[in-house]
Amino acid sequence: MDAGPPRGLQDKVAERLTFPICDCRLPISEPTERAAMGFRLSAQSAIRHPHSAFLVCIIGILAQLPSAAEEPSVWTIYVANDNCPDYTWGFTEEQTRRAFADIVKGHLDEMSRTDNQPPENQSRYNAAVTQEVLCFVEHYPDRKDELIRRIKEGRLYVSPYLCNSLWAFQGVEGAIRSFYPARRLERDWGIRCLDVAEHIEEPSLPWGVAPILAACGIRWLSNPFYSYDSTFGALKTPPLFLWEGPDGSQLRVVMDPFACNSASYTQGAKLLREPNAIRGWVGHYAKLGDAYKTRAILASGTHGDINPHSGGQARGFAEAIIKHNAGPQPRPKMVNATLPQFCAAVDADQAKTPFLSTLRGCFGHSWDVWPVCLARTVADMREGERQFLAAEALIAVASLRDPKLAEATRADRERAEWCLAMLSDHAWNGTDERNKRHNADLRRAWAAELLALARKLRHLAWQAGGLDEARPSLTLFNPLSVPRADLVCLDHRPGDVTGPDVKAHPYQFGEEDGRPVMYFVSPLVQGFGLTAVPLRTVPSVAGSRRLRAEGGELESPFYRLAIDPKTGGVASLIHKPTGKELAAQSKGRTLCQSIYHDGQEHPLGNVKVTPIGSGAVLARVAITGKAAGIEVSTLVTVYDRLDRVDFDIRIKKPTTTKQERLCQFFPLIGDGAVVRIETTGAVIRPRPQPGGDLLPGADTRRFAVQGFLDVSLPDGPGVTIAPLDAFVLRTDLGPLAFECLGNDQNYREVVGDQGGVTDFRFRYALRAHEGPYDQAEAVAWSRCVATPLLVARGALSVGTPPIQVDPARAIATCLKPADDPKAGGLILRLWETAARSEPLAVAAQGFSKAIRADLLERDQEELKIADGKLSLPVLPCGFAAVRLLP
After folding, report:
1. Exposed (0-12), middle (13-18) or buried (19+): which is 807, by Cβ within 10 Å?
2. Using one digit for the tens of pLDDT, what is the confidence trace for 356-403?
3. Which domain holds residue 422?
4. Which are the contacts of 541, defined by CB distance < 8 A and separation ≥ 6?
5. Are residues 48 and 104 in the same domain?
6. Do both 520 and 651 map to the same domain?
7. Does the N terminus or the C terminus of the chain have fewer Cβ atoms within 10 A?
């Protein structure tokens, strides 16, 4: 038998019988690759069997020929020109705003230059934040009409995000208000910019984004992420998918691990710069098979980070696309595209052959915790948001008496919204020390302005409500939808011997930050209701026999606490109604124990526990100690009539740029307990599925907490904690811990010394519940402890609260004057918290008309009001809104 040609010749013949595909053609699919491999082996065998060689050649050729569906020409690459619009990343505010204006100008110029090109070559641009077009009009007002025309033509897309938000860092209303500038452009310019949202760079996707965006009318979200300081390198999602929120709403999402890990948010630039990479990209999507039943590819981003030279790059990208499309066939078509064009192409393919898989769960948090590097600014932001929303609710109620109030306060309210939205921009870091300081100063100023505007708006609302300051009375306003009796802390003027009725409202004198104050618990105040508390000459009041503060012990009708004199934390927390010990023994940690870490651990030393005494309203102990030169003072307070424990921690620390963190630990309940946290728009269990809600690739170590953390056994008991100022939950330090301040989250890029701040305050409130976890109760209670009643000296007409909502079903995220003065009325936004699907009953006394709206105040359908009540459809754990007209 013929042994055949030498081995080297066999290899050469086999090599010749394979057909390499050029860079512009689709690489063979995986099944074809296997067939070709078999052919190469058969080719070597054919050298030994010449009679079958011809047949083998034919089989091999056929095996490698792409099918019609694999032809490169059937693929379309949508190159979406945009920039990464971090506000003041690397530049001053003035430079950034000018750069935004110039990049829009550069692309508008290219649109005019390419108007006569084929549609795929016509220049288009994606403004990844609304701020870009606002800055353009600011700098080029004479071209405003041209801008609007291009938006209407579909040549320029505007994302509804005002800025590059840290979406888990901002609250629900902060998230919604970040879309308001785009909504105003939509209304004022007659454009449509709220169907598709782009959110660039941040490698996270919190679960609550889905219901918020869906209820805003947004159908698509693109998240071209940069896998820095994150776990998204391990993300395994399909490039396109349906994302289901906790309320069952759905959003179509582009979050492509392949494209993002290849080129982050400059995918279009990569393919234009490296045309040989096109082959690999097309091959990747072809291999996805039934998981990618579209022949559209999104190459998101060209410019990269915004800079003063970005506008000058527009022509280069336009010319590169034109050059590609003029190249030899076969090749994919390249479109100078807007993001909505790509979404429309996928929608069409999905309608023909559904292929998008559905994912349900949370992709975690990441950069959302960076602001812990400026902890006092964060605390001011959180307090500012609460005070602004409270003042806004008072304005809404007062405007029923004085309709001119809404318009008189409009400019200040819009400015407050702008400050709130911009505080969520993710450039809490910087490119160098000078830029870090600039960004820190901006955020400190925005937070201070937000607080000042809230105070101003509150004052204007009281005036418009007709407050008579001469009458000896207090007027209380509840800015939440939850009825409650709550603590009132009233500044006590020297020589003032007046107070509330002592029998109904026992009072107690004390001191807050050096100010003399009077404490008492209010009568029940209905949601959005006003209540008068007459003042009269009052006698001294004996202390409550149910309160005790002795040595290291503190007791109320609800709790008995023992302070650990070594750690300064709570060693024992007994829930008296059940007799249960709530503090868990975990690695030597005690409840609300402060521990500093700068490379080594520093617990408090020189701990002193001092009872401050007890009165008719509250009992309190003070705990002091030091750790590595840091002074920590904690007030622990319990109440006679309020079921809660308050922790008020004051920190004095020297500045340092060493990597550091300061945490308060909360070891609670013990084994078998389930942890839940309220994040922006969703309550999640911060563990991987199925035991939690985190999808593969999510960071399991750090989370931004909004209203509360709850630790509960399945059948109870449980404990709910409301962090008022701290927000970073760490799950990787042993027991649950709040990192109240630090620079260890992106240490390389953030301010190292807390912006020079040395004094901090962090407050927590704690309450136990006997039964299992109740989400509606946890949400309502945490809102109440974070948002006190508004108090004014004087009297005004109180009447019946205009709006009432059952707190066992839902909570109002806001009550506000309508944003559109032509539409008018009040806007009530609600979050369904009981996971029930039936319509929500809302009492709306004194209103003649109700219109269901989306979260951005776009009217949808009229709702019937009968006997002062209306029925509002809402998804379980979802959001809803209604416009109420007097």
Report:
1. buried
2. 999 999 999 999 999 999 999 999 999 999 999 999 999 999 999 999
3. 371-464
4. 502, 506, 507, 508, 615, 616
5. no
6. no
7. N
